[in-house]
# Entry
Amino acid sequence: MSEITGIAEVTGVNGKVVAITGASSGIGEATARLLAERGAAVVLGARRAERLEKLAGAIRERGGRAAVLAADVTRAADLERLVELAVSEFGRLDVLVGNAGISRIGPVADLDVDGWSSMIDVNLRGVLNGIAAALPVFRRQGRGHLVTTVSTSGLKIVPTQAVYAATKNAVRTLLEALRQESTDGVLRTTAVSPGFVRTELVDSIDHPEVREEARRRMDEFGIDPEAVARTIAFAIEQPDDVEIGEIVIRPTVQG
Ligand SMILES: NC(=O)c1ccc[n+]([C@@H]2O[C@H](COP(=O)([O-])OP(=O)(O)OC[C@H]3O[C@@H](n4cnc5c(N)ncnc54)[C@H](OP(=O)(O)O)[C@@H]3O)[C@@H](O)[C@H]2O)c1
# Structure
């Protein structure tokens, strides 16, 4: 296979260095594949390193550029290492996609304190750790873009998703404040809110009935993770003076 097969010349994505957390499956994996196809160098972080290696191998086979790090977003040092890897391997970091997330959903009355803590640690603290690692590099470069995957769960509040939605809305709030603090043109922020997307996310739900219901809806009308990847690419490919702040993307039939 030719070295450059599959690498399109797309202004705005081509040549950018993009680190992605939660790149081992679902939306993160689809985003890594799409951005690499469009000429970005991708730096892949998640805990399942063997999956990342396989993905990076597939990207390289198609002429793309990829680096891999086993990283747990709940550990600030892992995010620092991910950002350092982008800089050491590819010279800089243009975009951090803070996408890692878990969905330990269930009724509040179940008092799943461990699940609540895990969601806060991964979904909120994980994004904060990414911001702490990436911002100094963005400031040094004079340019950078933070993209996060939040959720329609935070827009239409429904039973069983209280804490999950709260973590996603905390991130939404965080990004809006950061945006207002960063109007000097250096930083762009984007919060992408997907509805039901067919991924492995439901596997992290402990509550059997809630898990089966989520799985049923995902199978019935969940959209392909690549649709979210295209949305993320859309935000990234805009000219530097254009910031896509929030995007909602859901199945057409989702209520
Ligand atoms: N699917 C949907 O319907 C939907 C809707 C709205 C929002 N979202 C959001 O989209 C994002 C991606 O989820 P997905 O749907 O693509 O689900 P997924 O297939 O389960 O992917 C989740 C990713 O997060 C990673 N992850 C989990 N805990 C981590 C940790 N402590 N450190 C590092 N990585 C961690 C997982 O990798 P490892 O296990 O290898 O670490 C995996 O790569 C999440 O933030 C989710 O909340 C999804």
